[in-house]
Amino acid sequence: MQTTFRSVFISDVHLGTKACQAAHLLDFLQSIKTDILYLVGDIIDLQEMRSKAYFVDTHHQVVERILAMAKSGTRVIYIPGNHDAFFRQFAGQTLSGVEIKLNARHKTANGRIFHVSHGDEFDQMVKISPLMLAIGDKAHGLMLSLNQWINGVRRLIGLPYWSLAGYLKSHISKAKEFIDRFETAALKSAKNHKVDGYICGHIHFAAFRIKNDILYCNDGDWVEHCTALTESTAGEMSLIHWSENPKVLATEPKEDWGLQEPHAPTTHLV
């Protein structure tokens, strides 16, 4: 599997919580080579750590690896999210080689311009269903605990990583409706920004969607799916999963379905 990239985008790592798949992320960061690393928000879960911090050695190693990458020549850009919003006050500054920005414009190798943000700005534009509120709060925490237990059992019997929460989001209609509204809001924002695409995270659901030649990319997360968005040296975007069996989940769609079937443009990945 290819491990050299022009740029890599990760988000929703949630370091400082038990749900963080820090071991898989550390292995990923140690295995890749990239010119630019975008940290697209919720990297350190300062919000959750106010009540209970879980910052074990692997979490420290992830931070150390990111700083080492910045020191060794990788351009590291940190765009804080809603769980690490504290760092937004440092926007415009560079700390330990890491550039902090509220958002960014990324130019791909093939000349396309993408707006990059965490995605929580769409929370006021997208009506969140009671189900998604539950998924985002205590019920989500329960599902993540179950996810850890299930995958512990799966490892014992030789099965690869699997996401319970991701499965539920893919198969419950209200969750799917919320995700669709979020993607539509991001595509509309990209159009308003007059860019070729939008890159974000926030909803823990890796996906591609193309409409009217505008490409939506969600890089997923590192608590449920262990996914990253990558750009090749030719400028092509791909979504990859990294755990016991790393694999490419999908490459960016080429066909614009936007004028044909309103609900067809999405490539969802779980």
- Alpha carbon gap, first and last residue: 19 Å
Low-pLDDT runs of 5+ residues are: 258-266
Describe the sheet with the most strands: 8 strands, mixed
- Number of structurally distinct domains: 1
Question: What would the principal axes of the Cα set say about the shape?
Answer: globular
- Give the ordered list of helices and strands: EHEHHEEEEEHHHHEEEEEEE
Overall description:
With 270 residues, this protein is α/β, with parallel strands linked by helices. The chain has helices at 22-31, 46-49, 57-71, 130-136, 138-156, 164-171, 173-192; strands spanning 4-10, 33-39, 75-78, 94-95, 98-100, 104-107, 113-116, 197-200, 207-211, 214-218, 227-231, 237-241, 247-251, 266-268. The strands form 2 sheets. Strands 4-5-3-2-1-11-12-13 form an 8-stranded mixed beta sheet, with helices on one face. Strands 6-7-8-10-9-14 form a 6-stranded mixed beta sheet, covered by helices on one side. Strand 6 and strand 7 (113-116) form a beta hairpin. Mean pLDDT is 87; it is low at 258-266.
Summarize this, please?
Helix content is 31%, strand content 23%.
List the helices and strands and how they pair.
Elements: E1 4-10, H1 22-31, E2 33-39, H2 46-49, H3 57-71, E3 75-78, E4 94-95, E5 98-100, E6 104-107, E7 113-116, H4 130-136, H5 138-156, H6 164-171, H7 173-192, E8 197-200, E9 207-211, E10 214-218, E11 227-231, E12 237-241, E13 247-251, E14 266-268
Parallel strand pairs: 1-2, 2-3, 3-5, 7-8, 8-10
Antiparallel strand pairs: 1-11, 4-5, 6-7, 9-10, 9-14, 11-12, 12-13
